[in-house]
Amino acid sequence: MRDALRASLSTDPGFEGYPKGAVIVCGDCWRPIYKLERGVAPGDKCGRAASAFAPMRQADFRDLDTRVDLDAGWRGLLAVYALSPESQAVTGARRPRAGDEAVCPACGGQFLKVRTVTKSETLDHAYVWEMLWVPPLAARCANRFVGERTRWRVDVPDEAEIS
Fold first, then answer.
1. 21: phi > 0 → left, psi -120 to 50 → alpha, else beta; which?
2. How far apart are CA 27 and CA 155, in angstroms?
3. What is the pLDDT of residue 146?
4. Are 39 and 145 in contact (CB under 8 A)?
5. Among candidates 60, 54, 18, 10, which has minimal Cα distance to 146?
6. How far, in Å, CA of 30 to CA of 65, rounded?
7. Is 0.90 topped by the overall pTM?
8. Is the pLDDT of residue 72 over 50?
9. What are the tens digits of pLDDT across the range 95-145?
């Protein structure tokens, strides 16, 4: 295992990858930009992982707006953003392909963040890519990616109604 991947996994020892249904958030503008149609495992090659990204749809914004496990302020901002003309850049974005730049369709910033540990990894471009993401709501049973938790925030009880 490369040093950068080991360092990345040490920040969250239970991390098993980005699950199907996860919403990818741009680290520059904090807007949701893609939803994963299939999971992406740690160490997956970027060319293979590119096909998992699907542009956000208005239905995906509505799903985020009704999630009680997300911060109410962030949900409010998302509701305003989803109705704004700027959201058309995200909902109308084309699906990424292998070799494309990892550019946010909303702000033009890079939504993938790079981690390298050793000089040789940096020189060889053997980066580990990390993303900000919102996990999908887990089922009440154990989930391979999210574990026993049924909410993103631990202070929201499992019995909370999801409208």
1. left
2. 24
3. 45
4. yes
5. 18
6. 15
7. no
8. yes
9. 988 888 889 999 999 888 766 666 665 555 566 677 888 888 754 434 444
